[in-house]
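Make up an example, fold above all:
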Amino acid sequence: MAVYDPDPAYGERFAEYVSHRGQVPFSAQAFTSLQGLKAYAKDHEIELLLIHSSVSAEEAEKIGAARVIRLAGEEEEYEEGGPVQIYKYQAADSMMREVMACYCSAEGDPVFAGVSGTGRIIGIYSPVNRCLKTSLALTMGQLMARDLKVLYLNLEDCSGLKHLTGEEYRGGLSELLYYYSQNEFNWGRLGSLVYTWGDLDYVPPVRYPEDLFQMTAQSMAELVERIARESAYEAVILDLGQFGAKALEVLEICDVVYMPVKEDCVSAAKIEEFEEYLLSSGHEPLKNRIQKLKLPYHCNPGRTDNYLEQLLWGELGDYTRQLLRKQP
């Protein structure tokens, strides 16, 4: 990816963001001189060019990039017949979603370099209700993302994540499942749906529960494995909630499964029944990858506007830090 903008701070910061995040399959090079960009293009193939709107469509085409996106300011009009245009003054992760959506919707098949990923898949699951599964997953994701590239996926039918983040989502897991079902999934499609909270990347949960139920357990497991294998993410955290009968097949692909438990007799009975089901269904080896956790009491003051930050600095945050230090 080449980024041309006369403002050195803009181009360099955006190129640095692209290279650091690993959200998209591009290395990024920033240019503040049009002549420098042209000289670079003579010796290098440019797959995707983001270019300042002051450059005409004709001049941009001469650079020879496979795809061109015009970076427009607030009051600029779209140049008829010119490159695709996006608004340049927006949050970097929002801009990258637009860039990847434009890239993948352009004519011709997008080109993505092969990636041999070894992303670790971490499952958070329990048959017990109200045991802090999502709180643990979000705490773990935020802490791990300080050192690694981490993607958080929530597979619950009603996650509440939109209200926790205060974000209005334009796309998410519903679209990702659709792309996969149509054999149109690739790293670029994933990048067009990734949002960021602090250092943690995540795909917003399904818009409607029906979208999740229409996906088979095998297809869901295959999709997660492809994300871990074909993207730059070093860890994928799966918040499965309960996920019903589909859970086992997805849990089988996890390198480790953290299972929050509670000490009351009803919760203990549910865990015992789940383990009996593992045995009767032929999934007994999965037990060796399940770590049962008795999480500390988590006091929720009732506010959602800063709940995700609160997770890091309470008892659950301290507990999760200790847990991660013990892991290989």
Q: What stands out?
A: The chain has 14 helices and twelve strands. The chain has a mean pLDDT of 86. The first strand starts at residue 2 and ends at 4. The CA atoms of residues 19 and 27 lie 6 Å apart.
